[in-house]
Amino acid sequence: MSDVRGRSVTITEIARAAGVSVPTVSRVVNGRGDVAAATRERVEALLREHGYRPPPRARSTRAGLLDLVFNDLDSPWAVEILRGVEDVAHAAGAGTVVSAVHRTSDSARQWLSNLQARGGDGVILVTSDLDPPLTEELRQLAVPVVVVDPAGVPPYDVPTVGATNWAGGLAATEHLVELGHRRIALVGGPRGLLCSRARLDGYRAGLESAGLELDPDLVREGDFYQESGYRLGAELLALPQPPTAVFAASDQMALGVYEAVRRSGLRVPDDVSIVGFDDLALAAWASPPLTTVRQPLAEMGALAARTVLAMAAGETADNPRVELATSLVVRESTAPPRA
Amino acid sequence: MSDVRGRSVTITEIARAAGVSVPTVSRVVNGRGDVAAATRERVEALLREHGYRPPPRARSTRAGLLDLVFNDLDSPWAVEILRGVEDVAHAAGAGTVVSAVHRTSDSARQWLSNLQARGGDGVILVTSDLDPPLTEELRQLAVPVVVVDPAGVPPYDVPTVGATNWAGGLAATEHLVELGHRRIALVGGPRGLLCSRARLDGYRAGLESAGLELDPDLVREGDFYQESGYRLGAELLALPQPPTAVFAASDQMALGVYEAVRRSGLRVPDDVSIVGFDDLALAAWASPPLTTVRQPLAEMGALAARTVLAMAAGETADNPRVELATSLVVRESTAPPRA
């Protein structure tokens, strides 16, 4: 029997040590039910004792299924992540099963039971806020899980893929400062989400390095959707001293601010400069095209898919916490303030 | 043995007639491989002879997989259809496997081989233009297929779910005529697609019933994407006699026309009225909000999913050609022409 610190032990060696056939060990490794309980226990003990790890891609000989789970499918945002996941999964011969759990336990439970019934080789949760009991059930299934754009800080053993939200908030604010703006408002995302807090802190840091103080009147909390951008934009424009620039923490909220500006009889960027966040396709289609912070959503999806496929093949994630770089895309919605 | 014209024959009766066990007949019905060839042939002959049809939902006792196949995942359009499909599939305990075949045979072939390897209970093809050989391979798999928004007229035995594109083109044009417009341009979709031809014919019919003649100078062919709307919109505005209104055959092209109008120093709707087609979420987010023809994409996806699940359960589609109604949504991008 080999030393685990040297090369890794093989199924043949485990079978010999357990006094069973190689196919029996293989059945235990693959979690199949047709092995007597006593035999299974003996084999599992040996596998643990010798630190057995399945060879890479041992599980990908059959066509796999990756589960991609969103809260809702109501945003162009979802399709960008899906595009990256599907691309990697398709090439690897795996299917991408898309589900929406609508932030309800019932729907999440239904998804979990569907997953249990049909099997699945890996799960990608997007902006997850699964209930703790459901998270525990998912863990029991022993399916590899990766979280994209984590809502909070997940348990240490779940790899996450995010974007550099703080750096993005900083870059958006610095861009507006450099154009000469001093009254810069923030239409932020829900404070409960990690990404919103990081964007807010990047905004604050951008103001501070320019020697500007954060004016609480200019900081509003939206929900990432267009309607809240419109409402909060209108509130900001109605202030006695309105801002000359607005950083909206999502492209959809930025479009809401566009409409508030238009309804006030003002123009973007002549009267108000606007910066968004995400760089969805619709940012380039806005009129004028939107200056925004690019979040590489398709790349985040692709990396999550590669990570979960590697985990399904028995590898461990290289780095459990990855943030891909955001970058400022300057288009036509920003200009110096009126003199 | 019962008469097929009376009640339908049961598996028990088939088993008795074939001289085999009920589980054996069940294995044949469910297409499993562990039945001797001679037995399988005898049982299949009896099933055919007596017109056996599995009871509804006989196959849905295991969790199913619905394949949803797009050409590309590069449009907010895809996510609307996906939302409808996922909703129905999720509730039925089935997973929705999303694939993009990028209009290449290689990618479509890879998808087919993935499907063969993992199995699937039904396929929804969106705006399908699969190669004839691939269509034939798909038919060999004997998986139920439904086409959403057919690119052309598919073989008579494949059910389709579309929208009333002709009526939508008519409604858009009539709305502009009623506002007083006489020079109404069309930025159409690719002529090769059935839906584009129907929208063009609806536009023509709307002009004709107002006693207006179609001016070929005012009819342009785009590709449904924003860039073509921008380019063709700019061409139209540069005409010696520019149109006062534009009907764009997709919301994305309509946004391109917005940008062409803005760059000409003009305003929507003061100088140019614009009507789109689709009613994607971004239509309501445009500034000004876009008047458009609503295509019920989520409902189309939901109906396709219900149809394919029913077919998987052994039912036949009620109606092989369904067109769901479009409707005009009047927002703020249309107004009477300047006097």
Task: Please give a structural write-up.
2 copies of one chain form a homodimer. Chain A has 12 helices and 12 strands. Chain A has 3 domains: 11-49, no CATH class; 63-163 and 298-324, 3-Layer(aba) Sandwich (Rossmann fold); 165-295, Response regulator (Rossmann fold), CATH 3.40.50.2300. In chain A, α1 (11-18) crosses α2 (22-29), α1 crosses α3 (37-49) and α9 packs across α10 (251-263). By secondary structure, chain A is of the alpha/beta class. In chain A, α6 links the parallel β3 and β4. In chain A, the strands form 2 sheets. Chain A has a 6-stranded parallel sheet with strand order 2-1-3-4-5-11, with helices on both faces. Chain A has a 6-stranded mixed sheet with strand order 7-6-8-9-10-12, with helices on both faces. Chains A and B meet through α4, β2, α5, α10 and α11 of A and α4, β2, α5, α10 and α11 of B. β2 (95-100) of chain A pairs antiparallel with β2 (95-100) of chain B.
Poorly predicted segments of chain A = 1-7, 55-61
What integer value in Å does the Rg of chain A equal? 25 Å
Shape of chain A: elongated
What CATH calls the topology of the largest domain in chain A is Rossmann fold
Q: Report the portion of residues of chain A in β strands.
A: 15-25%
The two chains with the largest interface, and their residue counts, are:
A-B, 49 and 49 residues
CATH level-two architecture of the largest domain in chain A = 3-Layer(aba) Sandwich
Q: Can you give the helix content of chain A as a percent range?
A: 40-55%
The number of helical segments of chain A is 12
Q: What is the CATH C-level name of the largest domain in chain A?
A: Alpha Beta
Sheet of most strands of chain A: 6 strands, parallel
Mean pLDDT of chain A: 88
Cα distance spanning the termini of chain A? 81 Å
Quick one: CATH superfamily of the largest domain in chain A?
Answer: Response regulator
Helix/strand order of chain A? HHHEHEHEHEEHEHEHEHEHEHEE
Oligomeric form: homodimer
- The tally of beta strands of chain A, per DSSP, is 12
- Helix/strand/pairing category of chain A: alpha/beta
Sequence of strands across the biggest β-sheet of chain A = 2-1-3-4-5-11
Number of domains of chain A: 3
InterPro entries (chains A, B): HTH_LacI, LacI/GalR-like_sensor, Lambda_DNA-bd_dom_sf, Peripla_BP_I
Protein name (chains A, B): LacI family transcriptional regulator
Keywords (chains A, B): DNA-binding, Transcription, Transcription regulation
Domain HTH lacI-type (chains A, B): 9-63
